[in-house]
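Subject: design request, 315 residues
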């Protein structure tokens, strides 16, 4: 295959992956709708078939009983996410072959590679910790980032001179994996706040009843943020400055991208410190975690779009 063939295949793979991820997102939304419907059906059946002074008891499920539609849609959504991740990874690899370099030299490639890594990390966590309850958030966020990436599409081409360093590979890879973990942690933190509020009001619906306890979500958020913070520290504040020294002759210059990477580090450091020393668990920790994710998103995209600086070549 020629370089042009690789570039064309990459575009088709990414477009197909985007469509499949959209289908996965719709499958998970339909799953939530059926969860509400299935929760109401047993109560309606009990009221309709009961007699005065008695309560209808549903017969025990049989081994060959058809699984509920929400469970089927959940499996379909996960399967579609696997396919979408495979297509996007193929798009990343062929984009690299077409450009003859690492595939994260501009915002289109940052978004594509970032979503690919986030989906892979999510699917690995689904396998080992059963976090499929955050599927709608992960799929929806991935679609939003892919939309931003497509809006900044540029044809495959060579890197600008400042990016010719293996430290770029180390720097961006660590930052992207950290971002994927921050996404999982932010999703758990958001659902924690929603479920805690519903529990306090006594209005926990069927959808929130399907997610783990708030204590379990708090633990997941803490663990993913702790690992992501280590990777962010290494990628943004160690590997990044080393690459900057090779590219621009200085380790730190308070460029807007560097400033916001540091702001993100400070917020997540505050999150972990507050949990470790002041016992800030639960709601307060979740709010700080979401604030940290907001600073991460601005560092990732907002700086490139709204704040000119040395990293403006990545648009």
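Subject: RE: design request

Done. Sequence follows.
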């Amino acid at each position: 295959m020629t370089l042009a063939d690789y570039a064309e295949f990459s575009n088709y793979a990414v477009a197909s992956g985007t469509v499949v991820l959209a289908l996965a997102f719709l499958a998970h939304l339909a799953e939530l709708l059926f969860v509400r419907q299935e929760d109401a059906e047993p109560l309606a059946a009990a009221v309709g078939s009961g007699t005065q002074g008695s309560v209808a008891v549903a017969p025990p499920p049989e081994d060959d009983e058809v699984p509920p539609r929400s469970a089927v849609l959940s499996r379909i959504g996960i399967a579609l996410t696997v396919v979408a991740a495979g297509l996007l990874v193929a798009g990343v690899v062929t984009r690299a072959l077409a450009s003859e370099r690492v595939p994260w030299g501009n915002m289109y490639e940052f978004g594509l590679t970032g979503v690919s890594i986030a989906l892979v990390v999510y699917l690995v966590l689904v396998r080992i910790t059963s976090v499929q309850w955050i599927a709608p958030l992960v799929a929806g966020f991935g679609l939003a980032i892919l939309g931003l990436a497509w809006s900044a599409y540029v044809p495959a081409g060579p890197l600008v001179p400042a990016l010719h360093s293996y430290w770029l590979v180390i720097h961006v890879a660590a930052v992207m994996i950290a971002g994927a973990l921050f996404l999982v942690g932010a999703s758990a933190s958001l659902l924690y706040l929603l479920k805690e509020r519903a529990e306090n009001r006594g209005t926990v619906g069927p959808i929130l009843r399907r997610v783990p306890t708030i204590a379990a979500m708090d633990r997941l958020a803490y663990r993913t943020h702790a690992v992501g913070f280590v990777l962010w520290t290494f990628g943004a504040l160690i590997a990044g400055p080393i690459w900057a020294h090779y590219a621009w002759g200085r380790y730190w210059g308070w460029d807007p991208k560097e400033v916001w990477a540091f702001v993100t580090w400070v917020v997540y450091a505050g999150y972990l410190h507050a949990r470790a020393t002041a016992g800030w668990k639960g709601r307060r920790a979740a709010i700080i975690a979401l604030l940290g994710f907001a600073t991460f998103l601005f560092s990732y995209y907002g700086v490139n779009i709204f704040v000119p600086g040395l990293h403006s070549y990545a648009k």
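Residues 43-47, 51-61 have pLDDT under 50 and may be disordered.
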